[in-house]
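Hey, can you fold this one?
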Amino acid sequence: MPNLQAKIFNAGGIVSALLLLTIPFSTSISIIFSGILLLLWLASFQFKKLPWLLRNNQVALFSLLLFIGLFIATSYSSAPFKDAIKMWAKYREFFLFIVLLPFLSTPQHKKWMIYAFITGMIATLLVSYAMYFDFIPRPRYAATLKSIITQSIMISFFGYYCALQIRNPEIIKNKIFWCLLLLICIHNLYFVAIGRTGQLLGLLFVFLYCFQHLNTKLSMLLISLFAVFFALFINYSEMGFRITEGFQNVLNYDFNAPETETSMGRRLTFWKYSLTLIKESPWFGHGTGSFETEYQRLADSSFYITKNPHSEFLSLGVQLGIPGLLLFLGFLFSQFQLAQKMEIPRKWFAQGLFLSITVSSIFNSPILDHTEGHWFGCLLALCFAPQSTQKNA
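Sure. Predicted structure:
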């Protein structure tokens, strides 16, 4: 029996790596792997460790509280019960993160996950450039398999990871390899994927990297170089128009106007109505899955109708009220807090992940969205899984 348990546990580590590897490419396959992972979690009795895990890992505790809170909120949602349950299921990443934790507690399983992460991101770049050079057809106007927002978020974090490996290579001890990958990530982020969230993250990762690794003189040099690159990008690149366009949209936005046709204008409108909905029901929210129903009630025309406000903070605020917002803030702050206690280089990885999830959650709904939610869930588990040996696991 112990041998069978060990085999099931080992299979959980393999499936975890396969899940992370396939997330950027196939929603269906990643759903299948996450389902298999849940079965392996039950079959290996990892659920018995849940009380210990919740006592010793605040990120897991807040994640489970959010998942339970969203389930309870289906009972009073203004949306049809079927829609409420469907929305709750979309937040399964909060539970997936907990399921992954025990399987990633061994050094071997962590290594498999890191290889899966690197392989998945390199494959994403290869597919992206195959589209960029018209070797394969593009499913959308940008050369990305997923949306430009999704790819830009993933590539910005992977670029940050490459920069960390240049400083302290752990898996592939070749600094030239990581330098080349970093340059490819920068090009892809600003000239191929062109997602503004990822581009902002790229800028913030420069500041984080300086804070982590460089003295004042070198920090000023790197920031100056990046500032020159950014200025040239905005003023002379045909892709730079998205940055200036975004700023212009925000500056010209009229909060009293009935409609706006711009990209950032629509997003600001989503946020405006979302804040109104939170004010209407601040203590319990309108219930899980209620956003679309309640938003339609307030919106002036079909132009404004949306299924989520493109902000995880506002999405949870509308559905769960202020308690939901506080739980999500606790989920994020616990990541920051645990990161401070980690040893280098794991600490650097955790800090970058915290920054990526936090910034993405301001401008998008990365937990609600399938690809980002599953991808971040896997990386969080890789980062915050308890340390143990294969024997103890």
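The first helix runs from residue 2 to 22. Let me know if you want another pass with a different chain boundary.
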